[in-house]
Amino acid sequence: MENESFRNAKDQLEFESKLFKKTNKSSSAEITLLDGATCVYRSVSDVFFYILGDIAENELILVSALNCLYDSVSQILKRCVEKKTVLDNLDLIFLAVDELCNNGILMECDASALVARVGTRTEDIPLGEQTVAQAIQSAKEQIKLSLMK
C-alpha cells in the first residue's frame, strides 16, 4: 500500500476497525479486499496477524509473507503464540517484522533465517524472566531431551 493511504491516525484507526470487524470471525488464513487494499490474515487464539498490500499485489506473495511472519513469531515464542507472550516479546517481534520487509519490499520468506537474523535465544533467558507459558515449554523441551538420551 502507498505510504499516503492514511492521512492521519483517525483514518488508520477507522480502517483497522473495519478490517477487524470483517475478519475476526474466521480462524483460518484468508484473503479479503477492503478499501482498495488486499489483506491476508490469520488468527491464532487471541492474536491476529495481518499483511496488507495494494489491490494489484500478488496474493501469493502476501500469503508467503504472512506465513513467514507467523512461523517466525511462533519460533520466537516457542510455539506459545498468545497475547501476553506476544506483548512480553514485542521487541523481538518488531525486529522480525523489520527484517521481513523494508518499505513494502519482501526481504525474507524463510522463517528460520528470519529468526536467526533476529538473534533470539530464548533458551538462554533466565527462568525468573520467562513467562509461565515459556517456562512450561522450556521444561517440556528439557524433559524431552533427557528422555531421548
Automatic annotation (TrEMBL):
<keyword id="KW-0333">Golgi apparatus</keyword>
<comment type="similarity">
    <text>Belongs to the adaptor complexes small subunit family.</text>
</comment>
<dbReference type="GO" id="GO:0006886">
    <property type="term" value="P:intracellular protein transport"/>
</dbReference>
<protein>
    <recommendedName>
        <fullName>Coatomer subunit zeta</fullName>
    </recommendedName>
</protein>
<keyword id="KW-0968">Cytoplasmic vesicle</keyword>
<dbReference type="InterPro" id="IPR011012">
    <property type="entry name" value="Longin-like_dom_sf"/>
</dbReference>
<dbReference type="GO" id="GO:0006890">
    <property type="term" value="P:retrograde vesicle-mediated transport, Golgi to endoplasmic reticulum"/>
</dbReference>
<dbReference type="GO" id="GO:0000139">
    <property type="term" value="C:Golgi membrane"/>
</dbReference>
<comment type="function">
    <text>The coatomer is a cytosolic protein complex that binds to dilysine motifs and reversibly associates with Golgi non-clathrin-coated vesicles, which further mediate biosynthetic protein transport from the ER, via the Golgi up to the trans Golgi network. Coatomer complex is required for budding from Golgi membranes, and is essential for the retrograde Golgi-to-ER transport of dilysine-tagged proteins. The zeta subunit may be involved in regulating the coat assembly and, hence, the rate of biosynthetic protein transport due to its association-dissociation properties with the coatomer complex.</text>
</comment>
<keyword id="KW-0813">Transport</keyword>
<dbReference type="InterPro" id="IPR039652">
    <property type="entry name" value="Coatomer_zeta"/>
</dbReference>
<dbReference type="GO" id="GO:0006891">
    <property type="term" value="P:intra-Golgi vesicle-mediated transport"/>
</dbReference>
<keyword id="KW-0963">Cytoplasm</keyword>
<dbReference type="GO" id="GO:0030126">
    <property type="term" value="C:COPI vesicle coat"/>
</dbReference>
<keyword id="KW-0472">Membrane</keyword>
<keyword id="KW-0931">ER-Golgi transport</keyword>
<feature type="domain" description="AP complex mu/sigma subunit">
    <location>
        <begin position="10"/>
        <end position="121"/>
    </location>
</feature>
<dbReference type="Pfam" id="PF01217">
    <property type="entry name" value="Clat_adaptor_s"/>
</dbReference>
<keyword id="KW-0653">Protein transport</keyword>
<comment type="subunit">
    <text>Oligomeric complex that consists of at least the alpha, beta, beta', gamma, delta, epsilon and zeta subunits.</text>
</comment>
<dbReference type="InterPro" id="IPR022775">
    <property type="entry name" value="AP_mu_sigma_su"/>
</dbReference>
